[in-house]
Amino acid sequence: MHDGVYFVDADRTIQFWNKAAEEITGYTASETIGKQCQNSNLSHIDEKGEPLCTVGCPLFSTIVDGQQRIANVFVRHKDGYRVPITVNIFPIYDGGITVGAVEVFTKISSKVYEDDLIERLSGIAMHDALTGLPNRSYLESFLEYKLNDYRRFDRPFAVLFSDIDDFRKFNNEHGHDAGDAVLRNVSRSLKNSARSSDLVGRWGGEESVGIYTLSKESDAAIIAEKFRALVENTVITHNGKSLSISASVGITMARKDDTIESIIKRADLLMYQSKQNGKNRVTVG
What is the CB neighbour count within 10 angstroms for residue 124? Predict the structure, then answer.
C-alpha cells in the first residue's frame, strides 16, 4: 500500500511501522519500533509551525477520548526537510478499553518545505523574542497536555512559578539594557539545565514557569531550589560592574482536579509567600 501505517500502544510506543512509512519519512522500522512517538525524530508540527508532539498531539488525544481524527501536519524526513502529510488516526480497542491507536498517513503533495523555514515559523509562534524561551502560549498548551497525561496515565508532575525580586528597582538603577541582559543570561542557564521531559518558559515580564515530570513528590523541592540557585548565581558585567539578581519561587504538585488556571494560581500564591518571607527562597505546597 502507498499509505504509511504505524501502531502505538497506550504509552505511544510504536509497535508497527510499514514499508510505506519508511519510504515517506526515510526512517526504517528498526529505527522507530520500540520508541515512543514523542521521543522519535519525526517531530510533527502543524500548519502554523507548532510542535504537536508536546503541545497538541492528535494521536494522544485519540488514545484519551477514543475519537477518530484527521489532520494535515508536517513530518520531519530523515534527511532534514519537512514533508506535508494527511494523518487519519483511529483508536484500538480491547474489550471496550482504548489500548492504543493506529495512524494512517499520506503525502498530500510532492512539495516539501525547507526545515529551517518551518522551524523559524515555530519559533516565532511559540517562543519569547527576548529570551528565546517558550512563551505563555506554548506553556499553556504543554500544561494542558501534561494534565491530560496525568489524568490518563497517572504520571505526576509539578509546576513552578518564579518572579525576579525587585526587578523594577534593578531596571531603575542599572537601565533596561542591563535588565534585558540578566533575563537573557538567566534564560540561557535555565535552558541548559532543563531535561528533555521538562519545559521552562517566560510567563510574562520577569515571571517564569517551569513544568517538571517527577518520580516522587519530594523531588519538587530539590528542583525548585536548583532553579532558585541558578538565578542567584547568574551574573552579567555591565558598565564594568558585576550584577546579579535573585528570584522567589513557588512549586506545587499537580492534582487530578486541576485546570491550567488552578495549578498556575496555586504556584503563584506559593511564590508570593516566598516574597513575603524574605524573597530569594522557595515555598513548596
Answer: 12
